[in-house]
Amino acid sequence: MKVFIHKISPENVFLGVCLLNILIMFCILLNSYGAALEIMSYGESNFGDFWFHIDKVLYADSIYGNSSDANAIFPPLAYCFLKLFATLIMNRAYNIDIPVRISGYGILCLVIYLTLFILLFVFVIQYIYKSESCIKQKLLPFIFIFSYPFLGCAIERGNLVLYAMLFLMLGLALGGANSRFLQEVALVLIALAASFKLYPAIFGLLWIVDKKYKEAIRLIIYGLTTFFVPFIFLGESIGDYFFTFSLYLGKNVYSKTSLLGNCIMLFGEQGRYIGFVLIICWLLWIIYYLFSESITWKTIALLMSTQTILLAESYIYTFVFISIPLCFFLNSLLKKKRYFIKDYIYAVLFALTFTCPPLLNVMSGVMVGLYVSWLAILLLISLEKVFKIVHTKINL
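^ thats the sequence. predicted structure below, dont judge the formating
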Protein backbone atom coordinates (compact mmCIF):
# COMPACT_ATOMS: atom_id res chain seq x y z
CA MET A 1 0.00 0.00 0.00
CA LYS A 2 2.82 2.39 0.85
CA VAL A 3 4.48 1.68 -2.51
CA PHE A 4 1.20 2.35 -4.30
CA ILE A 5 0.73 5.68 -2.52
CA HIS A 6 4.32 6.66 -3.33
CA LYS A 7 3.78 5.97 -7.01
CA ILE A 8 0.79 8.28 -7.16
CA SER A 9 2.31 11.08 -5.13
CA PRO A 10 1.40 14.67 -6.11
CA GLU A 11 4.96 15.02 -7.43
CA ASN A 12 4.40 12.13 -9.85
CA VAL A 13 0.98 13.52 -10.79
CA PHE A 14 2.56 16.86 -11.66
CA LEU A 15 5.30 15.28 -13.77
CA GLY A 16 2.85 12.91 -15.47
CA VAL A 17 0.30 15.60 -16.39
CA CYS A 18 3.06 17.86 -17.72
CA LEU A 19 4.59 15.13 -19.89
CA LEU A 20 1.15 14.16 -21.21
CA ASN A 21 0.35 17.76 -22.10
CA ILE A 22 3.72 18.26 -23.80
CA LEU A 23 3.02 15.13 -25.85
CA ILE A 24 -0.42 16.53 -26.77
CA MET A 25 1.25 19.80 -27.76
CA PHE A 26 3.73 17.98 -30.00
CA CYS A 27 0.96 15.95 -31.65
CA ILE A 28 -1.08 19.10 -32.29
CA LEU A 29 1.97 20.74 -33.85
CA LEU A 30 2.55 17.77 -36.14
CA ASN A 31 -1.10 17.53 -37.12
CA SER A 32 -1.29 21.25 -37.93
CA TYR A 33 2.08 21.29 -39.75
CA GLY A 34 3.26 23.88 -37.26
CA ALA A 35 0.31 26.24 -37.64
CA ALA A 36 -0.62 25.64 -33.99
CA LEU A 37 2.46 27.60 -32.96
CA GLU A 38 0.29 30.68 -33.37
CA ILE A 39 -1.76 29.64 -30.34
CA MET A 40 1.09 28.05 -28.42
CA SER A 41 3.34 31.09 -28.37
CA TYR A 42 3.22 34.77 -27.59
CA GLY A 43 3.63 35.59 -31.26
CA GLU A 44 6.28 35.51 -33.97
CA SER A 45 8.59 38.32 -32.91
CA ASN A 46 11.95 36.98 -34.16
CA PHE A 47 13.25 37.26 -30.57
CA GLY A 48 12.18 40.89 -30.63
CA ASP A 49 12.89 41.80 -27.01
CA PHE A 50 16.48 40.62 -27.26
CA TRP A 51 17.19 42.39 -30.55
CA PHE A 52 15.37 45.61 -29.67
CA HIS A 53 17.69 46.19 -26.73
CA ILE A 54 20.77 44.90 -28.55
CA ASP A 55 20.02 47.44 -31.30
CA LYS A 56 19.84 50.16 -28.64
CA VAL A 57 23.34 49.19 -27.47
CA LEU A 58 24.73 48.93 -31.01
CA TYR A 59 23.19 51.86 -32.82
CA ALA A 60 21.61 54.39 -30.45
CA ASP A 61 23.57 57.50 -29.49
CA SER A 62 22.06 57.18 -26.03
CA ILE A 63 20.11 54.26 -24.57
CA TYR A 64 18.01 56.42 -22.25
CA GLY A 65 18.39 59.82 -23.85
CA ASN A 66 15.82 59.45 -26.66
CA SER A 67 12.61 61.01 -25.36
CA SER A 68 10.64 59.66 -28.34
CA ASP A 69 11.46 56.08 -27.31
CA ALA A 70 10.16 55.22 -23.86
CA ASN A 71 10.76 51.47 -24.11
CA ALA A 72 14.40 51.38 -22.98
CA ILE A 73 13.52 50.84 -19.34
CA PHE A 74 15.90 48.06 -18.32
CA PRO A 75 18.22 49.12 -15.49
CA PRO A 76 21.82 49.84 -16.57
CA LEU A 77 23.17 46.49 -15.27
CA ALA A 78 20.88 44.70 -17.74
CA TYR A 79 22.27 46.76 -20.60
CA CYS A 80 25.83 46.10 -19.43
CA PHE A 81 25.00 42.38 -19.63
CA LEU A 82 23.50 42.77 -23.11
CA LYS A 83 26.54 44.80 -24.15
CA LEU A 84 28.64 41.66 -23.71
CA PHE A 85 26.63 39.99 -26.47
CA ALA A 86 26.45 43.12 -28.61
CA THR A 87 30.24 43.37 -28.52
CA LEU A 88 30.51 39.87 -30.00
CA ILE A 89 28.82 41.07 -33.20
CA MET A 90 29.78 44.74 -33.17
CA ASN A 91 32.22 44.35 -36.07
CA ARG A 92 29.57 42.68 -38.24
CA ALA A 93 26.89 45.17 -37.23
CA TYR A 94 28.51 47.88 -39.38
CA ASN A 95 30.07 45.83 -42.18
CA ILE A 96 27.36 43.70 -43.73
CA ASP A 97 24.47 44.57 -46.01
CA ILE A 98 21.86 42.55 -44.14
CA PRO A 99 20.60 43.34 -40.62
CA VAL A 100 22.84 41.77 -38.00
CA ARG A 101 19.89 40.04 -36.34
CA ILE A 102 19.37 37.78 -39.36
CA SER A 103 23.05 37.29 -40.13
CA GLY A 104 24.79 34.05 -39.28
CA TYR A 105 26.86 35.59 -36.52
CA GLY A 106 23.84 37.45 -35.17
CA ILE A 107 21.90 34.18 -34.88
CA LEU A 108 24.93 32.55 -33.27
CA CYS A 109 25.04 35.38 -30.72
CA LEU A 110 21.39 34.71 -29.82
CA VAL A 111 22.14 30.98 -29.54
CA ILE A 112 24.95 31.75 -27.09
CA TYR A 113 22.60 33.96 -25.06
CA LEU A 114 19.92 31.25 -24.82
CA THR A 115 22.34 28.34 -24.41
CA LEU A 116 24.04 30.10 -21.49
CA PHE A 117 20.66 30.54 -19.83
CA ILE A 118 19.64 26.91 -20.35
CA LEU A 119 22.93 25.56 -18.99
CA LEU A 120 22.70 27.76 -15.89
CA PHE A 121 19.00 26.99 -15.48
CA VAL A 122 19.52 23.21 -15.56
CA PHE A 123 22.31 23.55 -13.00
CA VAL A 124 20.16 25.71 -10.69
CA ILE A 125 17.12 23.39 -10.94
CA GLN A 126 19.24 20.35 -10.12
CA TYR A 127 20.66 22.21 -7.13
CA ILE A 128 17.27 23.40 -5.83
CA TYR A 129 15.05 20.41 -6.62
CA LYS A 130 15.81 17.91 -3.85
CA SER A 131 14.24 14.81 -5.39
CA GLU A 132 16.27 11.65 -4.83
CA SER A 133 15.35 10.49 -8.32
CA CYS A 134 17.96 11.41 -10.92
CA ILE A 135 15.35 10.98 -13.66
CA LYS A 136 12.96 13.44 -12.02
CA GLN A 137 15.74 15.99 -11.58
CA LYS A 138 16.37 15.83 -15.32
CA LEU A 139 12.67 15.84 -16.22
CA LEU A 140 11.84 19.07 -14.39
CA PRO A 141 14.09 21.43 -16.43
CA PHE A 142 12.93 19.60 -19.58
CA ILE A 143 9.31 20.34 -18.67
CA PHE A 144 10.07 23.97 -17.91
CA ILE A 145 12.01 24.63 -21.10
CA PHE A 146 9.32 23.03 -23.30
CA SER A 147 6.45 24.73 -21.48
CA TYR A 148 4.43 27.59 -22.93
CA PRO A 149 5.70 30.37 -20.60
CA PHE A 150 9.32 29.43 -21.37
CA LEU A 151 9.47 28.21 -24.98
CA GLY A 152 6.45 29.98 -26.41
CA CYS A 153 6.87 33.27 -24.58
CA ALA A 154 10.10 34.20 -22.77
CA ILE A 155 12.48 32.25 -25.02
CA GLU A 156 10.56 33.24 -28.16
CA ARG A 157 10.98 36.88 -27.13
CA GLY A 158 14.54 36.44 -25.86
CA ASN A 159 13.41 38.49 -22.88
CA LEU A 160 15.79 39.20 -19.99
CA VAL A 161 13.10 37.97 -17.61
CA LEU A 162 14.81 34.58 -18.04
CA TYR A 163 17.97 35.77 -16.32
CA ALA A 164 16.09 37.81 -13.70
CA MET A 165 14.12 34.68 -12.82
CA LEU A 166 17.34 32.65 -12.64
CA PHE A 167 18.98 35.04 -10.16
CA LEU A 168 15.82 35.29 -8.07
CA MET A 169 15.34 31.51 -7.97
CA LEU A 170 18.88 30.80 -6.80
CA GLY A 171 18.81 33.76 -4.40
CA LEU A 172 15.65 32.54 -2.65
CA ALA A 173 17.03 28.99 -2.48
CA LEU A 174 20.35 30.11 -0.96
CA GLY A 175 18.56 32.42 1.48
CA GLY A 176 17.78 29.39 3.65
CA ALA A 177 21.27 27.89 3.47
CA ASN A 178 23.23 27.13 6.66
CA SER A 179 26.38 28.75 5.32
CA ARG A 180 26.71 32.47 6.06
CA PHE A 181 28.67 32.87 2.86
CA LEU A 182 25.84 31.37 0.80
CA GLN A 183 23.32 33.56 2.62
CA GLU A 184 25.36 36.59 1.58
CA VAL A 185 25.51 35.31 -2.00
CA ALA A 186 21.71 35.06 -1.84
CA LEU A 187 21.46 38.77 -1.04
CA VAL A 188 23.70 39.63 -3.99
CA LEU A 189 21.62 37.43 -6.32
CA ILE A 190 18.35 39.10 -5.24
CA ALA A 191 20.00 42.46 -5.89
CA LEU A 192 21.10 41.27 -9.35
CA ALA A 193 17.57 40.07 -10.15
CA ALA A 194 16.20 43.49 -9.20
CA SER A 195 18.91 45.18 -11.28
CA PHE A 196 17.73 43.24 -14.33
CA LYS A 197 13.96 43.73 -13.93
CA LEU A 198 13.43 46.04 -10.92
CA TYR A 199 10.30 44.31 -9.63
CA PRO A 200 12.02 41.35 -7.88
CA ALA A 201 13.20 43.93 -5.33
CA ILE A 202 9.92 43.32 -3.49
CA PHE A 203 11.28 39.94 -2.37
CA GLY A 204 13.45 41.82 0.08
CA LEU A 205 10.31 41.80 2.24
CA LEU A 206 11.03 38.15 3.04
CA TRP A 207 14.11 39.17 5.05
CA ILE A 208 12.06 41.77 6.92
CA VAL A 209 9.30 39.24 7.63
CA ASP A 210 11.96 36.84 8.91
CA LYS A 211 13.26 39.67 11.15
CA LYS A 212 16.67 39.60 9.50
CA TYR A 213 17.00 43.35 9.55
CA LYS A 214 20.78 43.52 9.16
CA GLU A 215 20.57 41.31 6.09
CA ALA A 216 17.73 43.47 4.73
CA ILE A 217 19.89 46.58 5.10
CA ARG A 218 22.78 44.87 3.29
CA LEU A 219 20.34 43.79 0.58
CA ILE A 220 19.34 47.43 0.08
CA ILE A 221 23.02 48.40 -0.13
CA TYR A 222 23.71 45.67 -2.69
CA GLY A 223 20.64 46.71 -4.64
CA LEU A 224 21.63 50.37 -4.77
CA THR A 225 25.18 49.42 -5.74
CA THR A 226 24.13 47.10 -8.59
CA PHE A 227 21.66 49.71 -9.79
CA PHE A 228 23.76 52.90 -9.76
CA VAL A 229 27.37 51.76 -10.35
CA PRO A 230 26.64 50.32 -13.85
CA PHE A 231 25.70 53.84 -15.03
CA ILE A 232 29.44 54.57 -14.92
CA PHE A 233 30.35 51.66 -17.20
CA LEU A 234 27.42 52.29 -19.50
CA GLY A 235 28.15 56.00 -19.82
CA GLU A 236 24.49 56.93 -19.43
CA SER A 237 22.77 59.64 -17.41
CA ILE A 238 20.81 58.68 -14.30
CA GLY A 239 18.44 61.56 -15.00
CA ASP A 240 17.77 60.29 -18.52
CA TYR A 241 16.89 56.86 -17.14
CA PHE A 242 14.31 58.17 -14.67
CA PHE A 243 12.89 60.50 -17.31
CA THR A 244 12.51 57.61 -19.77
CA PHE A 245 10.98 55.44 -17.06
CA SER A 246 8.45 58.14 -16.21
CA LEU A 247 7.53 58.41 -19.91
CA TYR A 248 7.00 54.65 -20.02
CA LEU A 249 4.68 54.75 -17.02
CA GLY A 250 2.80 57.62 -18.65
CA LYS A 251 2.01 55.46 -21.67
CA ASN A 252 -0.55 53.53 -19.55
CA VAL A 253 0.73 50.23 -20.86
CA TYR A 254 -1.19 47.24 -19.58
CA SER A 255 -1.20 43.56 -20.36
CA LYS A 256 -4.22 41.35 -20.97
CA THR A 257 -2.82 38.99 -18.34
CA SER A 258 -2.70 41.63 -15.60
CA LEU A 259 -5.56 42.32 -13.20
CA LEU A 260 -5.80 45.87 -14.52
CA GLY A 261 -5.79 44.73 -18.14
CA ASN A 262 -8.55 42.21 -17.55
CA CYS A 263 -10.69 44.72 -15.69
CA ILE A 264 -10.37 47.21 -18.56
CA MET A 265 -11.17 44.48 -21.07
CA LEU A 266 -14.30 43.43 -19.16
CA PHE A 267 -15.62 46.79 -17.97
CA GLY A 268 -14.10 49.37 -20.30
CA GLU A 269 -12.55 52.52 -18.88
CA GLN A 270 -14.53 52.10 -15.66
CA GLY A 271 -12.61 48.88 -15.21
CA ARG A 272 -9.47 50.94 -14.63
CA TYR A 273 -10.82 52.07 -11.24
CA ILE A 274 -12.02 48.57 -10.41
CA GLY A 275 -8.57 47.28 -11.30
CA PHE A 276 -6.81 49.79 -9.05
CA VAL A 277 -9.07 48.82 -6.13
CA LEU A 278 -8.36 45.11 -6.73
CA ILE A 279 -4.63 45.75 -6.89
CA ILE A 280 -4.62 47.67 -3.60
CA CYS A 281 -6.76 45.02 -1.89
CA TRP A 282 -4.55 42.21 -3.19
CA LEU A 283 -1.38 43.98 -2.06
CA LEU A 284 -2.81 44.45 1.43
CA TRP A 285 -3.78 40.78 1.48
CA ILE A 286 -0.25 39.72 0.48
CA ILE A 287 1.29 41.89 3.20
CA TYR A 288 -1.11 40.49 5.80
CA TYR A 289 -0.35 36.93 4.69
CA LEU A 290 3.40 37.54 4.78
CA PHE A 291 3.37 38.78 8.36
CA SER A 292 0.89 36.20 9.66
CA GLU A 293 2.40 33.04 8.18
CA SER A 294 5.81 31.42 8.11
CA ILE A 295 7.73 31.58 4.84
CA THR A 296 6.64 28.63 2.71
CA TRP A 297 6.06 27.97 -0.98
CA LYS A 298 2.60 29.53 -0.54
CA THR A 299 4.12 32.75 0.76
CA ILE A 300 6.47 32.86 -2.22
CA ALA A 301 3.60 32.09 -4.62
CA LEU A 302 1.49 34.99 -3.34
CA LEU A 303 4.48 37.31 -3.49
CA MET A 304 5.20 36.04 -7.01
CA SER A 305 1.80 37.32 -8.10
CA THR A 306 3.34 40.81 -7.95
CA GLN A 307 5.59 39.76 -10.84
CA THR A 308 2.92 38.01 -12.92
CA ILE A 309 -0.54 39.57 -12.63
CA LEU A 310 -0.33 42.59 -10.37
CA LEU A 311 1.83 44.85 -12.52
CA ALA A 312 -0.05 46.47 -15.38
CA GLU A 313 2.67 45.46 -17.85
CA SER A 314 2.96 41.85 -16.61
CA TYR A 315 2.97 39.98 -19.90
CA ILE A 316 2.60 36.22 -20.17
CA TYR A 317 6.37 35.65 -20.33
CA THR A 318 6.57 36.70 -16.66
CA PHE A 319 4.95 33.33 -15.88
CA VAL A 320 8.46 31.85 -15.93
CA PHE A 321 8.70 33.25 -12.38
CA ILE A 322 6.07 30.70 -11.30
CA SER A 323 8.72 28.00 -11.66
CA ILE A 324 10.15 29.31 -8.38
CA PRO A 325 7.18 28.60 -6.06
CA LEU A 326 6.66 25.37 -7.99
CA CYS A 327 10.16 24.14 -7.06
CA PHE A 328 9.51 24.97 -3.41
CA PHE A 329 6.13 23.21 -3.62
CA LEU A 330 7.71 20.04 -5.00
CA ASN A 331 10.36 20.12 -2.27
CA SER A 332 7.66 20.47 0.38
CA LEU A 333 6.03 17.27 -0.89
CA LEU A 334 9.26 15.33 -0.36
CA LYS A 335 9.07 16.03 3.39
CA LYS A 336 5.52 14.72 3.75
CA LYS A 337 4.66 11.21 4.91
CA ARG A 338 1.08 11.47 3.68
CA TYR A 339 -0.71 13.62 1.15
CA PHE A 340 -4.01 15.48 1.12
CA ILE A 341 -6.44 16.13 -1.71
CA LYS A 342 -5.30 19.76 -1.86
CA ASP A 343 -1.74 18.59 -2.62
CA TYR A 344 -3.01 16.82 -5.74
CA ILE A 345 -5.11 19.83 -6.74
CA TYR A 346 -2.10 22.12 -6.48
CA ALA A 347 0.00 19.62 -8.46
CA VAL A 348 -2.52 19.53 -11.32
CA LEU A 349 -2.98 23.31 -11.31
CA PHE A 350 0.79 23.88 -11.47
CA ALA A 351 1.00 21.42 -14.36
CA LEU A 352 -1.75 23.30 -16.22
CA THR A 353 -0.08 26.65 -15.48
CA PHE A 354 2.87 25.53 -17.59
CA THR A 355 1.43 23.02 -20.04
CA CYS A 356 -2.32 23.55 -20.35
CA PRO A 357 -3.42 22.21 -23.76
CA PRO A 358 -4.25 25.08 -26.16
CA LEU A 359 -8.03 24.99 -26.21
CA LEU A 360 -8.62 28.43 -27.67
CA ASN A 361 -6.67 31.31 -29.12
CA VAL A 362 -7.51 34.79 -27.86
CA MET A 363 -5.62 37.95 -26.95
CA SER A 364 -2.84 37.50 -29.48
CA GLY A 365 -1.97 33.97 -28.48
CA VAL A 366 -2.22 34.22 -24.69
CA MET A 367 -3.24 30.86 -23.25
CA VAL A 368 -6.29 31.40 -21.08
CA GLY A 369 -5.78 28.04 -19.39
CA LEU A 370 -2.39 29.08 -18.03
CA TYR A 371 -3.76 32.31 -16.63
CA VAL A 372 -6.82 30.71 -15.04
CA SER A 373 -4.74 27.90 -13.51
CA TRP A 374 -2.37 30.39 -11.89
CA LEU A 375 -5.27 32.46 -10.55
CA ALA A 376 -6.81 29.27 -9.16
CA ILE A 377 -3.58 28.49 -7.25
CA LEU A 378 -3.50 31.99 -5.74
CA LEU A 379 -7.19 31.88 -4.80
CA LEU A 380 -6.89 28.40 -3.29
CA ILE A 381 -3.97 29.55 -1.11
CA SER A 382 -6.05 32.54 -0.03
CA LEU A 383 -9.13 30.40 0.71
CA GLU A 384 -7.03 28.10 2.88
CA LYS A 385 -5.94 31.13 4.89
CA VAL A 386 -9.50 32.45 5.19
CA PHE A 387 -10.77 29.06 6.42
CA LYS A 388 -7.92 28.98 8.93
CA ILE A 389 -8.87 32.42 10.24
CA VAL A 390 -12.57 31.47 10.50
CA HIS A 391 -11.74 28.18 12.22
CA THR A 392 -9.56 30.02 14.76
CA LYS A 393 -12.31 32.55 15.48
CA ILE A 394 -14.91 29.81 15.99
CA ASN A 395 -12.67 27.94 18.41
CA LEU A 396 -12.16 31.11 20.41
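The radius of gyration is 22 Å.
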